[in-house]
Amino acid sequence: MLFFSYFKELVGKEVTVELKNDLAIRGTLHSVDQYLNIKLENTRVVDQDKYPHMLSVRNCFIRGSVVRYVLLPQDGVDIDILHDATRREARGG
Amino acid sequence: MAPGLQRFTDIAGDGGPRLDAASGEELLRMDRAASVALGRRAPEPPGTLFVTTRRVIWLSETEKGQGYAVDFLAITLHAVSRDLEAYPSPCIYTQIDAEDGSDEEAGGSDFEANGDLQLAKVSEMRIILSDPGQLDALFDVFCHCAELNPDPNAVRNEENGWSGGENLAEGGWIHGDEDMIDGNDLEAHMFFTNLIGQNGVRDLGRSVRELQIDDQRFEDAEEEDEIQENGH
Questions:
Q1: Which stretches make up the Sm domain (chain A) (predicted)?
Q2: Do the domain assignments include residue B138?
């Protein structure tokens, strides 16, 4: 549940979601569920020249299974807390 | 992988689609006078849209008994599109998990090769409702249905940037929570990174490795075995 819990903390922050089809969408993280499905608001496509038709989209739902990366805001990563969380997770607790 | 867009001709006596009641499929929403546009093609003449707990079905009015269906498993992205400069009608925009060779290029009309419509290669579909005010409600239904249809057999992705023998990283999420049944594998191949991009991934990966080396709690092989047993 580590990622789910972690992503929940990022709600309201600006993230970039890169899909396995190379489409990268930047937007405000609206919500995330246990399958890591992601809802973004105020989206914009990073590579607008390649995907001009996606310009029209302002909010979108992305299936968790097609997400390749989630790029986080730099201040959204607290390495110490992340280390603790990964250790707890690895210990089964 | 779920099949992409498919032709649908299984019409019940009432003129609607015959659903798979045995698997619990239920109709959640119906929109009359709805059009679909496949890829860059012009919208089809209006028909009826059916949203079920498992898939989206559209039936033509002009060509009775003809239609299309796509499982929510294959709908990888959906969104409300309202910018009339980008598309002339407000619509629900969807991306479909299509066969390779679809529209990776900007052109995106390969699925019409030889004049035949190769539905399995359609990677984009727009749904245009007669009442654009209903688009948000339809969007919400799509979200709900996507959550009803998690991937049944998400396979571990060996491209995982954190692989390479770090049992700490691997053991943790794969064998961890029982209630993450379908999410486990997704977690396995999502990486933390930050706006620095690649460097961020590498730095974090190195930090995780250092953690293992430096932290005595993880040097005990017996404990690793114990973790795995507990996880199952």
A1: 2-76
A2: yes
